[in-house]
């Protein structure tokens, strides 16, 4: 489990590509200060497992499904990534519940500055937008952000100066691809509502049945 509060910007030092999988070696002296084999690290919001590490590098394996459904597949040597270690049980919860299980990708449509904020419009699929709500939470490349506008195929988020300077959203450009993880709690609520609706639709109890039985 993560919070969406980025700890460090890492740099891709090596990429090993298989037919459908990948192996990445990332540089980050801060992240490896407290790291162990098997630890979970969010890389651009994707939960990955540490398979090796040294004084300032660590290596992760990426499965075919993750390669296919996230922007990890576009990473090359020299690219910068957002990094966050799994939340410590005794740590402060500064963002929102982020699982590191990306729901899909979006594309940056526009970035515009308004006083001390930078507004970012992101194009997303309708399937993703149904989980978005005004003033709700969303993780963009692993960054916990608040949604300020929702349209059928677009959301808008706002970056404070610190987020702009300390995450990769500050250096990403229009048409760049970003990972999207919808709010975990919202997804569970909608799933439960859909299940209740299906059960209600499939019910054999009708108004005629109720009237015939004295209701």
TrEMBL record:
SUPFAM superfamilies named in the record: Riboflavin synthase domain-like (SSF63380)
Q: Which GO terms describe its molecular function?
A: riboflavin synthase activity
Pathway assignment: Cofactor biosynthesis; riboflavin biosynthesis; riboflavin from 2-hydroxy-3-oxobutyl phosphate and 5-amino-6-(D-ribitylamino)uracil: step 2/2
Q: Which UniProt keywords apply?
A: Repeat, Riboflavin biosynthesis, Transferase
Function per UniProt: Catalyzes the dismutation of two molecules of 6,7-dimethyl-8-ribityllumazine, resulting in the formation of riboflavin and 5-amino-6-(D-ribitylamino)uracil.
NCBIfam families assigned to the protein according to its UniProt record, in alphabetical order = PRK09289.1, PRK13020.1, ribE
Name of this chain's protein: Riboflavin synthase
Q: Enumerate the InterPro entries for this protein.
A: ATP_synth_asu-like_sf (IPR023366), Lumazine-bd (IPR001783), Lumazine-bd_dom (IPR026017), Riboflavin_synthase-like_b-brl (IPR017938)
Q: Gene encoding this chain?
A: ribE
Q: Which residues form a coiled coil?
A: none
- Is Repeat included in the keywords of this UniProt record? yes
Segments forming domain Lumazine-binding: 1-96, 97-193
How would you classify this enzyme at the top EC level?
A: transferase
Q: Kindly state which reaction or reactions the protein catalyses.
A: 2 6,7-dimethyl-8-(1-D-ribityl)lumazine + H(+) = 5-amino-6-(D-ribitylamino)uracil + riboflavin
